[in-house]
Amino acid sequence: MTTATRTDVRLANEAWESVLTAHATLMSVFGAEDMWAEVSMREYDVLYTLAKSDGPMRISDLQGGVLLSQPAMSRLVDRLVARGLIDRCPDPVDKRAVRISLTEEGARLQREVGRAHGRSVAREVSGALSPEEMRDLRRLCSKLAGSA
Hints:
With 148 residues, the chain is mostly helical. It has six helices and three strands; from the N terminus they run H-H-E-H-H-E-E-H-H. The chain has helices spanning 3-31, 41-52, 59-66, 70-82, 104-128, 131-147; strands at 57-58, 86-90, 98-102. The protein has a three-stranded antiparallel beta sheet with strand order 1-3-2. A hairpin with a 7-residue loop joins strand 2 (86-90) and strand 3 (98-102). Helix 3 crosses helix 4 (70-82).
């Protein structure tokens, strides 16, 4: 291994550690806020992902945006259905599968929590970064996500 390669490996790992540290720090700040009384951060993540979709989603598609194991996702969906925040409907293409979508109450709660969470994100990110740095961060993170 050449010196340049060792430096690249070290730098890549330091950059990755910085991303993870920033994520953990911000998630801790956001998790401590009072907007999570009606819905947990994980539950909100499901509601938010559904709100961004063009229509009902299969649970397997939802997993890509929420990062939970299939059994954990199924339990979370069951809880959200029981609370009346999401609905299940048969998948018209695959009769063995189901699709899920927001109920009116789920959409209302997602918007309410989303507005508060959006203000928190704006406060923390814009408090630490300039507009140019935020654009750079968005571009770099999109580039990383696109290469995976």
